[in-house]
Amino acid sequence: MQEYTDKELLEIFRDENRRHYAFNLIVRKYQQKVYYHIRRIVIDHDDSNDVAQNTFVKAWKGLINFREDSQLFTWLYRIATNEALTFLKQKKTKYFIPFVDVENELNETLVSGKNIDANKLEMKLQRAILTLPPQQRAVFNMRYYDEIKYEDMAVITGVTTGALKATYHHAVKKIEKYITAD
């Protein structure tokens, strides 16, 4: 299968007769990255699939108005991040449970998850990441796992690069403290 650039994909998408084909190519190109980005925030596989699906539904609806002020992947990550954080907020309010209990539930899912590597250090890192507030966790995951530049994260989150650097620094310190405590 030919690998298209984002610019080429958007050109194909603009052709009304090829719109569905182009979107299918966009989903193929980004679905795995978007899924794992969401998965690191939401943890549960089924919930991550639902959030990823919602992400691509929103992308389909919004792509016609995409102005290319940002890169396609940052635009998709912004939608995915917002959808994942909204999902966690809804989960918290839907069941009237405190955020700490949502985090405990995510921790249980992590421990019992069949799709998570059981390596002890990785498990400890994942538990440490779960102690972070959702937005801080999203920033940490984008930087640590996805290696997204701060400038791109600023586009994704709508937060300044300086604030993102500070958020990442605080997240790293919290994670270090969690990992070294024992």
Helix/strand/pairing category? mainly alpha
Ranges where pLDDT stays below 50 over 5 or more residues in a row are: none
Radius of gyration: 17 Å
Strand content: under 5%
**How are helices and strands ordered from N to C?**
HHHHHHHHH
CATH homologous group name:
RNA polymerase sigma factor, region 2, helix turn helix motif
How many strands, what sense, and barrel or not for the largest sheet?
Answer: none
Question: Which term fits the overall shape?
Answer: elongated
How many DSSP-defined strands? Answer: 0
Fraction of residues in helices? over 70%
The helix count comes to 9
Query: Mean pLDDT, rounded to whole units?
Result: 87
Q: What is the fold-level CATH name, i.e. the topology?
A: Rna Polymerase Sigma Factor, Chain: A
Q: Between the first and last Cα atoms, what is the distance in angstroms? A: 50 Å
What's the CATH architecture?
A: Orthogonal Bundle
Determine and state the CATH class.
Mainly Alpha
Provide the number of structural domains.
1
Task: Describe the structure in your own words.
The chain is mainly alpha-helical and 182 residues long. Helices cover 76% and strands 0% of the residues. The chain has one domain: RNA polymerase sigma factor, region 2, helix turn helix motif (Rna Polymerase Sigma Factor, Chain: A). It is built from nine helices and no strands. α3 (45-63) packs across α4, α4 (72-94) crosses α8 (150-157) and α6 (120-130) crosses α9 (161-180). It is elongated and about 60 Å long.
